[in-house]
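Technical annex, item 7. During the second reporting period the consortium partners agreed on a shared format for inverse folding records so that results from different sites could be compared directly. Each record opens with the tokenized structure and is followed by the designed sequence. A conforming record, contributed by the partner at site C, is shown below for reference.
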């Protein structure tokens, strides 16, 4: 388990198949286990192994920005990550350090902010409140990603690009 920078905030990365590591994330963040934890992927093709894509074009457009998309999960995703919803949040971070970590690991890693639930997400390594290894990538924007549920076609959390998401959802209305 490590803390790593994305272009938005610092996240906690762990093996998505390690139930022990995921439970430790819930403990560290003081987060309820019915709250999902998103995963970070290195490319669009990795995504296809973990989620059903309602419309590839919509997903590609959204992933070109700091946006987390929620999709129906495939069997390869552990239920503990989904909050038992059957859906998984996925993000394609642009930050080179995050990309390097995922590529070297060869599999998605968890992508949840490195903060106690309900508190401000960290925008620099020094702000991380946990005693875990940190990859220091300098200061990042501090504005969380927009989270959009493509199953229910709605924005769950406004963030860095919520107006862009609203336009994309409107443009692709009826095509998902």
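Designed sequence (site C submission):
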């Amino acid at each position: 388990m490590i803390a790593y920078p994305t272009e938005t905030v610092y996240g906690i990365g762990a093996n998505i198949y390690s139930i022990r590591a995921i439970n430790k994330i819930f403990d560290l963040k003081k987060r309820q286990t019915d709250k999902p934890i998103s995963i970070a992927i290195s490319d669009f093709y990795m995504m296809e192994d973990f989620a059903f894509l309602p419309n590839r074009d919509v997903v590609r457009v959204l992933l070109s920005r700091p946006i987390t998309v929620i999709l129906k999960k495939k069997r390869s995703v552990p239920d503990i990550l989904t909050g038992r919803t059957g859906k998984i949040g996925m993000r394609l971070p642009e930050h080179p350090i995050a990309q390097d970590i995922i590529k070297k690991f060869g599999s998605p890693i968890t992508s949840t902010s490195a903060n106690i639930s309900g508190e401000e997400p960290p925008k620099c390594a020094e702000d991380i409140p946990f005693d875990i290894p940190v990859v220091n990538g300098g200061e990042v924007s501090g504005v969380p990603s927009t989270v959009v549920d493509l199953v229910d076609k709605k924005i769950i959390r406004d963030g860095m690009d919520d107006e862009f998401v609203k336009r994309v959802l409107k443009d692709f209305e009826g095509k998902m």
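The mean pLDDT is 94. The beta strands are 2-5, 10-13, 39-40, 51-52, 67-73, 87-91, 109-110, 112-113, 146-149, 154-157. All partners now use this format for quarterly exchanges.
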